[in-house]
Amino acid sequence: MSLTHLNQRGEAHMVDVADKPESRREASASGYIQMKPETLALLREGGLPKGDVLATARIAAIQAAKRTHELIPLCHALALSKVSVDFRLDEAASRVEVTASCRLNGRTGVEMEALTAVSVACLTLYDMCKAVDKDMEIGGVHLDTKRGGKSGDYSRGSIPAPSPIVTGEGVAGQVSIGTRCDIASPCVRVKCLAELRERLGVSELVVPLDSLASTDVGGLKAALVERDERFAGLSEGRVLCAVNQVMAVDATPITHDDEIAFFPPVTGG
Amino acid sequence: MQRLREIRVQEPPFDAGIEQAALLAGRSDIGAVVSFTGLVRDFNEQPDVTALTLEHYPGMTEAALDDIVTQAEARWPLQGARVIHRVGRMTPGDPIVLVVVASAHRRAAFEACDFIMDYLKTRAPFWKKEHSANGDYWVAERESDHKDASRWESDDDDSP
Known about the structure:
The structure holds two protein chains of two kinds. Chain A is of the alpha+beta class. In chain A, 24% of the residues lie in helices and 26% in strands. The two termini of chain A are 30 Å apart. Chain B has helices at residues 16-24, 60-75, 106-123, 143-150, and strands at 5-10, 32-39, 49-56, 78-86, 88-90, 95-103, 126-132, 135-138. In chain B, the strands form two sheets. Chain B has a four-stranded mixed β-sheet, sandwiched between helices. Strand 6 (166-167) of chain A pairs antiparallel with strand 8 of chain B, so a sheet runs across the interface. Chain A: Belongs to the MoaC family. Chain A: Substrate binds at residues 74-76, 112-113.
């Protein structure tokens, strides 16, 4: 994964999209503006001094989507084929939720346009209501979905959020010695430690040596994935491995009764 | 030269003063002792950290700490070293880790203590889980810790 707006020297540059094939691109984003219940009631009744708040914010959002390239330095100017902006008045949470969708047939994604539309809609709502409520707060601006293009479809929530993994308190980390392998049926003992143990839901298991295509760490990972696809996580991100408590790599050979531990990057001290 | 080394992984708290005194007891050849104590902070990835649980990999942890001290001894003329790391549950203000390094001269003691902590943070198999008002989460590794540790790896003119 790399940042497409940086060139090899790390300088900002605009991505040349001339040779990219055209495809249908869509993106939708959302956000909200939190306000006092009285402000929300005034907004619903049309009682705010500046007039029709939602209609104005909708026009502002559509204009902003079309002018995204003027605001965000490395964005291309796009001929959007559709911009739609929706508002939902959430009485329970005392906020207005804003959703914007953008579409075009073209060579670049339209997520920046959708995000800009949501942001400007929220700013306009603030401007329209600020006479009666200065405590309003804009938040939660994020991309919901994105379709088309080389990086593929994206739907928020279908991949793990980048925030820290929240788990139950669990028991204080203790790794038991585990069972020894039976000499008659050679095997290796596998341990998953710390966050990895909680993510995969397994702390220890025994894998027969003859189930490995190759008797090394890489072969063990492949055998584990065959057993349960969640073990694909062992090859994602930074997962470290130790064979008999010495740091190892995929090519490290393993043999009967070895102890192989997988764990996340260390965070002691 | 007499050398003393002690490495412990334990649940109970330690007393840095007692540990340093034990390292120095009966010695008159030591000219400098540097002691570092790491404490549990009440804010880290989230504000309001209420507690922290430290997990480790028994066996490998002790070997890794021992190896780090061995590397420090190869780089500086040390006359003693003591590394204590706690595991289990701790609350803000509690001591987590102690590194005490003794040498004939201060520079070696300062640098070796710094080195041991940098390597401990990036090489010893400990994992922190923080408990906060918003839930419990495993602490992520920090790029800055790797940068700190890599200071000792370049064999430039200015490194020991």
